Amino acid sequence: MSGNELQSLKEMLEYNSKHLSPTVVVKIILDIAIAIKSLHSNMIVHGNIGTHAILLITSHKEQQATALLSEFSHMHRLQLFTGSKQNETISQLMCKDINGLVSLTEALSLYCQIDKNRPLNDSEVASQGDVNYDDWELALESLDLGLVPNLALSYICE
Asked: Which SUPFAM superfamilies does the entry mention (predicted)?
């Protein structure tokens, strides 16, 4: 992983990382949605989706990032039963992951709103290149339009 950095999303948000470009913010949600869908298709519930449980591998050269789920201490391996009561519980556990993804989307949406209004200093302009207000606006719209609902529609989550 030469030239790459590993950091939690929580740390990146706290320190206003230059790696969190509009494209990366949207990709984080997509990566985590794919991870959740993969877990659920294998009857695994993460149980603790949040900024602390997401690791980002960032590339200094390419200004890209890959989001990975971590922190599996609340994970559940599910068994599908024929009784409706057990299946309700499975649905509720899966919904907890989806609700975590919704909360994550809201947090990143708020980050987009804050960051698009923050003036960049000279070093940030040099490192971010042509990232501007319109890029942040597009990222915000993508998050607001709901990258999450397509995944959430397959569950009945409240």
From this structure: Protein kinase-like (PK-like) (SSF56112)
